[in-house]
Amino acid sequence: MGNIEGGEPILSRSTYANNREVVDALLYSSERKNGARIQVSPLAMEAERAVRYGGYSPVAASAPVINNNVDVPATDNSEMLELLRVIANKESKVVFSNRLYEDHKAQNMRIEDRANA
């Protein structure tokens, strides 16, 4: 896909493959929003710089440490697991009735026709 005018960059397949979300956002902005600025998360940019160039991310270094460890009492799930096994092993046959399907489809059409009238 392309509509190239003077001074516009051409991206390689590997650039697109590695930056698909950003390129898609830029193309959407260019085609649908008259080239409006896209929003890029500053946190993501800082983290990417830290990974790419080494060092640490000031955002990550200043982030508070949150401890979500909680004690959860052990529960007995054996009854639920047994019911799941019964359901998984149950042999059930599904019968598709074309007549009932066509009746249902016709009823939906009647409802749509009344709503659009």
Describe this protein's structure.
The model has no long low-confidence stretch (mean pLDDT 77). The relative contact order is 0.04. The longest helix has 19 residues, at 98-116. It contains six helices and no strands. Helices cover 57% and strands 0% of the residues. It is mainly alpha-helical and 117 residues long.
Query: Topology as H/E string?
Result: HHHHHH
Please report which band the strand proportion falls in: under 5%, 5-15%, 15-25%, 25-35%, 35-45% or over 45%.
Answer: under 5%
**Biggest sheet, open or closed, and with what strands and sense?**
none
Number of helices: 6
**Strand segment count:** 0
The unreliable regions are: none
Relative helix content = 55-70%
Task: Tell me the layout of helices and strands.
Elements: H1 13-18, H2 20-32, H3 42-53, H4 58-62, H5 78-89, H6 98-116
Name a few traits of the molecule.
single chain, 117 residues, mainly alpha, flat
Quick synopsis:
By secondary structure, this protein is mainly alpha-helical. The protein has helices spanning 13-18, 20-32, 42-53, 58-62, 78-89, 98-116. The radius of gyration is 28 Å and the shape is flat.
